[in-house]
Fold this sequence. Notes:
Elements: H1 2-19, H2 23-33, H3 45-59, H4 64-81, E1 88-90, H5 91-95, E2 104-110, H6 115-122, E3 128-133, E4 139-149, E5 154-164, H7 168-171, H8 185-193
Parallel strand pairs: 2-5
Antiparallel strand pairs: 1-2, 3-4, 4-5
Helix pairs in contact: 1-2, 1-3, 4-8
Amino acid sequence: xxxxxxxxxxxxxxxxxxxxxxxxxxxxxxxxxxxxxxxxxxxxxxxxxxxxxxxxxxxxxxxxxxxxxxxxxxxxxxxxxxxxxxxxxxxxxxxxxxxxxxxxxxxxxxxxxxxxxxxxxxxxxxxxxxxxxxxxxxxxxxxxxxxxxxxxxxxxxxxxxxxxxxxxxxxxxxxxxxxxxxxxxxxxxxxxxxxxx
Length: 197
């Protein structure tokens, strides 16, 4: 059973890194690619993340750090633009597993759920409204934009997930590995200053 999970992790990790898939779709595609039954038990996201780190260390050690840095710098630009909404960076860009194919996920904590959308409209930023799964498994409104990343010379998806201001308290509880699952502006600036922190 564990070897099967390891195999799913390895295939899914390759898809995450090489194709930019999110963990859920990568796990499901890995099961299909391996010819396993659809009801096969899937590995946890933490196991996929470990496999992604292994894959990056093995195949992308020379390019991934620069790509991650470029994405974190772009995330900081967007966090500074949206500073009125208590932006927090999460996902692969925060945890350090992002590559040039990864999107940027920012959680915004708003007194009025429409205020971030109005801010984008006021600044003439084109966006696509969507509904995504939030950090507690609930449906959350997201505003998705395409932003040019000059360092990578390509467009990157930036997803602004809209939460109530009060949700910020639960947003900083440590994850299963004891890590802070997202960081505010000051934390991202520290990461850029010293990536080892």
